[in-house]
Predict the structure of Phosphoribosylaminoimidazole-succinocarboxamide synthase.
Amino acid sequence: MPLDEVAAIAGTADREIRRAQLIEHRRRLAQAAHRAAARVDAMDRMIEREDVVESALRVDEGAPLLTDRRMAKELHGTLDRTDFGHLGVRHEGKVRDSYVDGDVRTIVTTDRLSAFDRYVGTIPFKGQILNAIANYWFDATADIVSNHLLEVPDPNVWRVRECTPIPLEFVVRGYATGVTNTSLWVNYEAGERNIAGNLLPEGLRRNERLPAPILTPTTKFEIRDRNLSRADAIADGLVTAELFDRCADVCFRLFARGTELAARRGLILVDTKYELGLLGDEIVLIDEIHTPDSSRYWYADRYDELFQSGEEQRSLDKEPLREWLVERGFHGEGEAPVLTDEVRIATATRYILLAEELTQQPFQAAELTAADRVARALES
Ligand SMILES: Nc1ncnc2c1ncn2[C@@H]1O[C@H](COP(=O)(O)OP(=O)(O)OP(=O)(O)O)[C@@H](O)[C@H]1O
Ligand SMILES: [Mg+2]
């Protein structure tokens, strides 16, 4: 990157914009480095095979960078509400619109973003990125549990097997952190040592790694989230003991895999939420997995240093957007502030970075906006 451009960024007054620009440039550099590494690999293979001319033609020049113009176009073409009634009975979730037709469900992952359980706006490319991240993890965990994915007709769309959802959200936590009422740190700090049936040691500090990951299920179909122990879930008739234990085993194995693969990318999988369903007696992983909507990720490189000094961890999720909302007085009640283009771009950039780091694939923006592309893919 030319030095005068760096100087121009350094001179930008608004911190939010400056940060977004720096992140964008880092992303481009990382992409260039990734491509260079791929070329070095290709060169090694060429040398091995002494097949220089043939292979040189096949070296991938990489995807075009995401330009400012393309981002600007997407700001006006995000995927918000969908209506494809011909695909089945419509269900609207916070982020996904589903269309159920017998044993097949078409899930459209929109660009909607929810914070504090409220819809706050759309983020360019978010749906496509969430699906790309989940696709990576479905693939990387298929040996642990089968998942619902059947086919991917569009980057924002999945066809999945319709399952009977198990009425629990399986939250697995590796660290003592969080700021909401159901979060581990808030309860621990208030003196609670039994979190959903898990006995925690004395003396934990904020953001400390737990001796071992714990499962803190919440109920899926109640308005207010509440932490449940294994005994509560069974006593309330939500699951049998046998089913609970099978689910717990799957979740801990998924979390171990997530932790291991994230570590290879220099990331910490802090906590996450799994949804499981049943097809007959078979447990199936449904909804999404290890996306920034369902999970918290931190950068590993400075974890120790920040933990020791008691500073915030650097997170690669939507936390900065939550902070932006809080700075404007929004905590989930009243009207949400209208997202500015700058914060939408900054948030999109974080999602793109995370996807590229995890999947090791450069992000590709299609010619059409998400709204136009999905309409084309799904209209009858
Ligand atoms: N294979 C499946 N079979 C049945 N239901 C599914 C399947 N996959 C996902 N679902 C359900 O589809 C809905 C997807 O919508 P979305 O992810 O927006 O959920 P939500 O419940 O509103 O929010 P959140 O996931 O953030 O709690 C969820 O209710 C999820 O349980
Ligand atoms: Mg969901």
Notes: Residues 49-64 have pLDDT under 50 and may be disordered. The two ends are 46 Å apart (CA to CA). Residues 79 and 333 are 25 Å apart (CA to CA).
